[in-house]
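Re: Re: ligand-bound prediction request (bumping)

Still looking for help on this. To restate: I need the protein modeled with adenosine monophosphate bound, output as structure tokens. Inputs repeated here so nobody has to scroll up.
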Amino acid sequence: MKKNTSQTSNLLCVGSIAYDSIQTPFGKVNKTLGGSASYFALASRFFAKSSLVGVVGNDFKKTDIKILKDNADISGLLVAKGKTFHWAGKYHYDLNTRDTLKTSLGVFAGFKPGLNDKQKQAKYVFLGNIHPKLQLDVLKQIDAPKFVGLDTMNFWIDSALPDLKKVIKQINLLVINDSEARQLSGEHNLVKCAGKILGMMAEYHPLAPSYSKRGNAEEGAPLKTLIIKQGEHGLLMFNQNLSLRVHPKQSNQRLPRPSDALGASKDMDIFNLPGFPLEDVIDPTGAGDSFAGALMGYLAKCDDISETNIKKACAKACVVASFCVQGFGISKLDKIKLPDIEKRLTEYKNLINF
Ligand code: AMP
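Reply:
Sorry for the wait, this slipped through. Here it is.
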């Protein structure tokens, strides 16, 4: 039976499609369907169906192909000889921190993404957590992206920082967790982290040659957005949009240097949302990816990248991600339906309204 997916497919995601072995204080599962792209697809489906770019090995189960196919466009998914990406992780008692026990790239090690014509037309692009070289390869193939988001993790900050910095310069939105933000910026304080990271994203600017291709000149759209996820505590969003916004009459003005944005907290709008309080958090795996999927799905559905709409998308994404952590792997996310999300969204609104 088809899920309640919207048919919009102007949304593309590259990321891992994995088998995960997860241990939490509440139990464990072995080699269950996971990966950044899988969670992304299952979460975005409530708003916009995504098209996936990725690879699985010939050990990938037919039942798992069916789950992806029911929720996303998988015409761009490759099945290669070898093993599917495998990640194993163990969560600490507070569930906010985890140790990676194993990362086996398997077929991702030799993967060269080749987008089909439809995928090259995507307007909303999410470069999900995977090697930054693959993220760059995918981005290069898109004709005229309107809004590009990116996720990464400590593994890639440690092992592929130069490539990661290249891709960070070409995006609109970066979604990372607090420890990754600290690691990437070398700062402890999150506001300082944000200043530095927005500085790294500085090449993306309305006067830069690539800008005319993006739709970001729209009224109200931030130049650059950083979302720092804080696990059960919610998120902090930093939008850079004030002093770097250039009036058309001043278009002969020089391009601000990246250093102009460093630590420029006066140029940042800061927005904060709490996590949805739950008493049955079981497995946080994929919370970040499902947050990103719902956020990008909502933006793609509305085709509106104004700051106000990004805030709305964040609230919806917090709610979708809250379902993800209530089951091991994708088990809960796969079962919920749009009315479940709408009901919890009402509770969430009550939580933050006073
Ligand atoms: P999250 O809990 O949102 O950080 O995402 C967890 C998912 O990321 C799991 O399903 C893993 O399969 C996947 N994952 C873990 N490590 C990596 C990595 N180095 N590259 C890509 N995906 C990964």
